[in-house]
């Protein structure tokens, strides 16, 4: 573990302490570590992701096209750990997929899902494991 010191404006410091207290962080350092991991993960360029990855894929899709989506999901069953399905309304369903596996395979899956008929919106979140 490295120790670094940073300068923060007074107001930001008190906001930091408020958040830490409100959400029960044990220390400022714990909050910073989590915030930095989120920051790094958010700035991962999708194309730059390498090696083993863990991510979520959220899809909003036309429920009438479910068959095609299921075909893609079966093809990549070895990287899809878990899946949650929510019936949004009479037209749409939302699915959240938890993915872990080799980055190239995960990218293939995402590319496949993006071009699956009926997929209206797709969002990915890669987790930073450092
Ligand atoms: Ni549904």
Characterization of this structure:
It is a single chain. This protein has 130 residues and is α+β, with helices and mostly antiparallel strands. The protein folds into 2 domains: 10-46; 50-128, ACT-like. Chain A, domain 2 (Alpha-Beta Plaits). It contains 4 helices and 4 strands, in the order ααβαββαβ. A 4-stranded antiparallel beta sheet has the order 2-3-1-4. Bound molecules: nickel (II) ion. Nickel (II) ion (NI) is lined by residues 63, 85, 87, 93.
Keywords:
single chain, 130 residues, alpha+beta, Alpha-Beta Plaits, 2 domains, 4 helices, 39% helix, binds nickel (II) ion
Strand line-up in the sheet with most strands? 2-3-1-4
Main beta sheet: 4 strands, antiparallel
Determine the number of helices (DSSP H or I, runs of at least 4 residues).
Answer: 4
Q: What structural class results from the helix and strand content?
A: alpha+beta
- End-to-end separation in angstroms reads 12 Å
Give the secondary structure arrangement, pairings included.
Elements: H1 10-23, H2 28-42, E1 52-62, H3 66-75, E2 80-87, E3 92-102, H4 103-114, E4 119-126
Antiparallel strand pairs: 1-3, 1-4, 2-3
This protein binds nickel (II) ion.
